[in-house]
Amino acid sequence: MVIAEIKGLQKKYKSTQALKNVTMELKRGEVLGFIGPNGAGKSTTIRILLGIIKSSGGAAKIFGKDVWKDSIEIHKRLAYVPGDVNLWPNLTGGEIIDVFMRMQGTKNDARRDELIQKFHLDPKKKARTYSKGNRQKVALIAALASDAELYIFDEPTSGLDPLMEAVFQEEVENLKNQGKSILLSSHILSEVERLCDRVAIIRQGEVIETGTLDELRHLTRYQYKVTTRDVPIGLKQVSGVHDLVINGKEAVFQADIDQIETILEAIMPYHVTKLESVPPTLEALFMRHYTGK
Amino acid sequence: MKNCFNMTGMLFLHTLRRDWLKLLIWAVALSLFTGGFASAMYEIYGKDPAGLMAMYETLKNPAMIAMLGPTSATAETYTVGAMYAHEMILFTALVFAIVSIMHVVSRTRKEEDDGTTELIRSFQVGRLANTTAVVIEMLLLHLVIIALSTGLLQVQDVPGMDFSSNLLYSASLGMQGFLWAMIALIFVQLAAGAGSARGLSFLTLGFFYILRMATDMNAPDGSWFNPLGWSYLVNVYVSDSWLPIVIAFVTSIVFIAVSYLLEQARDLGAGYLPERAGHAHAKERLLSLPGLVLRLQKIFIIGWLFALFICGAMYGSIFGDMDYFVSENEIMKQMFLHNSDYTIQEQFMSVLFVILSLLTTIFIVGSLMRLVNEEKKGHWDQLYATKLSRTKFYWYHVIMASILGVVGQFSAILGLYLAQRSVMETPLSFWEITKAGIVWIPAIFFFIGILSVLIGWLPRFTMIIWAYLLFTFFISYFGQMMEIPEFVTNLDVFSYIPKIPIEEWKWGAIILIKLLALFIIVIGFIGYKKRDLVSE
């Protein structure tokens, strides 16, 4: 079942087109990673999904409902953590968490207290004394303690230390195990790699790739490192081999995924003694999409 | 519109919880401001018909009408109430408008800019819920103020000020507060951010204030088309008309509807008015610490210099009628004619500069306070991390505050001089007024000194300076009327300053205070140089 369905979403401002074509979907029980550089349109997309700003073209539905017209109905089943959390300076963190949970519609004090403990938040302090990380914790605790079907996180860990980041990841995994759906926008690619079932990559207002990590990897090249008994001169002529560097009997090259068979056949005559292949990291994918390398 | 108001009640309670103390203080302060002076006015002017007539003549002066608005009363119907309303209603309306604009913008657009609204909207909260909560809050606040102010006026039981008029007077001001809150709400939708929403609201307020100056003098009917005009057009204590309140109320409803429509159709964080793009690069003059500090305070400085000039001009504009006014009024005679060597104006001026100097002091305390306030907000952190030394930070701010103190005082002097020159037959010379004004500068510097020590040694308790300022104000204002022990008066630095021209210029005291100020500024510096930086 599809939780969120976004088709050809556009957002025009007077002189700029912030979103050109955002198309992606989030299925039930899935964690969708939403990655892209600053200014690519991640937050704009999320704000449209929340009905906070209005799209100027395309369609976006959550739970089968229009994100602008039925935003209240949608919000009853959703929890959100923005990247930049701003709180009322004269209320304490604990008070704010309660206010947020009330507005979300959940009452679960035990879960709340457990999370406060896990995130090491001092709920008695006024929000004005909190650092960015602590403000983020307030929003995270309120969201994670909420009983929602869809969780939207917009760079939720940008202010957290690695320990807290781990706590967050653990909580997201719990949600995933409970069959909740999660949209996770993030810069921390290792986090996305670990948590997400599928990834959508956005560039200049356009989603240019979506798919599982494996699917994305298929679009790109694996890196091979071979050691042979004879110098593998013949590799130079094989199509599908790129960036070949031969250093004596060692060769390093990028291989097109659909040419592996031909390439391997071509190296066999040189007597392979060692073969390593490295799947591209998300970072390599990301860099390739943005810098073209 | 479906669900647009979802959770309004909850948000309203939440807003109240955040604001209740502030609102309570405002309600009390504003009610005191509206209704608190009636019996004092009665004591001074009202008991004596001649005094009332003198006030009538004074306030009929075009300069006074320009500032305070007109009265519909004739010489026969100019009662204490009529005078009270005449003197108070427009100015109080301005105060109400300012408070409303500040609050509405900070609770709506400011939160939107901060990103808080975004988080709130992600819950099942309607698009118009927050705005509606603020509308309800403002309505409630002004109803409470109307009740308190009416009660306050009733309790004072001034002859000729009855319940229905008291209610109308309070309602007129409460209505102004609500009306301007709704006007601000429209600019909240139109503008591209909290700063410009606030700026546009104040610009509108200023525009209507000046517009009514013109219409009040030349075409009184024109003031019916002016939201500020609806304050004094109720003709309270003269012919009591509720019509302007009805008009203002209906207009407020229209404004609410308009702002709803505007808010519905716009994106969060967006506005309708284009925002002027800023400079892509800093100009050269911004790239030094003095340049930066000056730029950060630009609006503040310009605003204060203008305000001081206007205050000087306000006092100066009544110089012309003073002879007549005082000769007609027994109490005034006693107050002013105890020294027949000097004219009324000279005596008045000597007292006047206590007030003007206090205003200048508020100005420079506000300016120097930035040194520590910006530190608390963490704005200096990145600058402290550069080669800029604390020595520079400290002395730039102190020197700037000192220069501003002198400039501010001269702004008031200039306003006073120009205004009195236009209304008096034999005006005072610029030098006479300057002497009366600059004699206070050492006392103003003394405040810089005290604040410096606080900044250097007790950065978390810099608010103490306001208490001392309040104390000085109290002693200067009421000191003569009340029996205050001498050792208390001696704590007031203003009490050492000779009141020029009726007292003699004292070089000794003036130089001593200056040296003392410099000395404590240095003490403050020693503390500032070695203390930890503070944050909120």
Automatic annotation (TrEMBL), chain A:
Q: Which SMART domains match?
A: AAA
Q: What is this protein called?
A: ABC-2 type transport system ATP-binding protein
Q: Which Gene3D superfamilies match?
A: P-loop containing nucleotide triphosphate hydrolases
Q: Which family does it belong to?
A: Belongs to the ABC transporter superfamily.
Enumerate the InterPro entries for this protein: AAA+_ATPase (IPR003593), ABC_transporter-like_ATP-bd (IPR003439), ABC_transporter-like_CS (IPR017871), ABC_transporter_ATP-binding (IPR050763), P-loop_NTPase (IPR027417)
- Native source organism of the sequence: Peribacillus huizhouensis
- Keywords associated with the record: ATP-binding, Nucleotide-binding, Transport
The record places domain ABC transporter at: 4-229
- Source organism superkingdom: Bacteria
Q: Does the keyword Nucleotide-binding apply?
A: yes
Q: Which GO terms describe its molecular function?
A: ATP binding
Q: Does the keyword Lipid metabolism apply?
A: no
TrEMBL record, chain B:
Q: Where are the transmembrane segments?
A: 88-106, 127-148, 168-192, 199-215, 242-262, 299-318, 348-372, 393-418, 438-458, 465-485, 505-528
Query: What are the alphabetically sorted keywords of the record?
Result: Membrane, Transmembrane, Transmembrane helix
The protein, known as: ABC-2 type transport system permease protein
Annotated source species: Peribacillus huizhouensis
